[in-house]
């Protein structure tokens, strides 16, 4: 049972298609006979080969957006295609900053609900059913979109393994962006990239995360140092992001990023449900926490009941002397 | 400067609650509190009004059970007044319906700026602020780290995976702010006392012109068709640090050939 056509909102960062986009394309191939991508900007030709090799038959590019934030123009272009009868049966996007903007705008434009934070999606008749983890992943709920399409689904990164289809380079077509009127008033005038020499948090094979148990903001350096010495990325619990110790982009959890590294080391993190849903898909979990009752030990393969301020420096030293 | 801040009252996240097996909604018969994610938006709004040298912050919220305590918390922080849209018809509303209802309540106030949290701590769809903007046909910037007002426009630092973007945006606009970017003030005793007598306007969805079948479960474009226990991970070895526990970690990493 498949739908006819699915469009995937494809994200391109610094000329590279994001790994999450390829995950969504892989899933979309199972759900529909024809898969296409929508790309913001005029770089369609540069990414047509990669997107084609993961199953996209067509890449719809919006053309140069003149710095506009992508949510409004991309949603307007997709909605215009739907209104003209050229739209898909469903649109998939990822739970990312831009993916959410696109899906939310599109939801209003098309007057269709969007189901969010899904970790799986399946076809049911002519509609889609999404699976969403709640209560820290203890329970999955399945939500069916009722009513007519296009059906809108936001999927969490790392929900599927990306697998190439061996498809040919996709055709590139322009998807016209209609006049945006008053909504089009937000444009990016500058970009700041915070220097980081390690791997990206959601792509790293090893993640070291810190939480409230570190005691104070300065102690996050222990987490950063350990991540660096193991060639991993540094993450954080919501508690210390809320406290302003580290930026939101490093937050692992239900709100924040989902990570599934080979090794996850949780330092001073109690393991609130909010955090567990973002990391318990990791292959191997090590936890250091002074509270033996901390829920994080319930998911850890190796749990150390101890003081992070003692265990982490000793571990750093042991690693440095190797 | 007139700022409307959208706030949500949620069950205490420390006590995450349960699904009502009958209605398959999150049980909200407990006392609700102000979502901590929204306290950043309230603080941001108060700071902008202070910096502008005049104006006010008003609150808009939607709840199925007339709950006011979370709104009183935000009023105690310094907001002037609140609108609560509350009736049982709203139970089961999806994000789109929520955005339509909130937008209808915001529209009459003609604010310069609408602020919301990037995502709630309970439902966390992360879509409602952008949807409100779309309903009101306003520009929006999500995931804001800071907002600076320059006349009839604002400059916003928007969180990205790699750093942040500087976004120029015309007013009026809808901005969602990420957690941790400002330090929410604690309500003072004076603030808490004053909040008790601040205007809190209660409206029903019908007052805002919504038919019963346009909101709640009836107006929702989704249906929960299954609730399943997810497979759980098994706990492994837990040891007490005797001063040598770091060596167990080294051994564990060696066995995985990570080092």
Q: Can you walk through the features of this model?
A:
The complex is a heterodimer of chains A (322) and B (259). With 322 residues, chain A is an alpha/beta fold. Chain A has two domains: 3-184, Rossmann fold; 206-320, TPP-binding domain (Rossmann fold). Helix content of chain A is 26%, strand content 30%. In chain A, the strands form four sheets. Chain A has a seven-stranded parallel sheet with strand order 7-11-6-1-4-5-12, sandwiched between helices. In chain B, helix 2 links the parallel strand 4 and strand 5 (81-85). In chain B, 50% of the residues are buried. Chains A and B meet through helix 3, helix 4, strand 7, strand 9 and strand 10 of A and helix 3, helix 4, strand 7, strand 8 and strand 9 of B.
Which structural traits does this protein have?
heterodimer, A: 322 residues, alpha/beta, Rossmann fold, seven-stranded parallel beta sheet, five-stranded parallel beta sheet, 8 helices, 18 strands, B: 259 residues, nine-stranded mixed beta sheet, two-stranded antiparallel ribbon, 27% helix, globular
- CATH architecture assignment of chain B: 3-Layer(aba) Sandwich
Mean pLDDT of chain A: 95
Spans of chain A with pLDDT under 50 lasting ≥5 residues?
Answer: none
Structural class of chain B: alpha/beta
Largest interface: A-B, 101 and 85 residues
Question: What radius of gyration of chain A results from the CA coordinates?
Answer: 21 Å
Structural class of chain A: alpha/beta
Element pattern of chain A in H and E = EEEHEHEHEHEEEEEEEEHEHEHEEH
Strand residues, percent of chain B = 25-35%
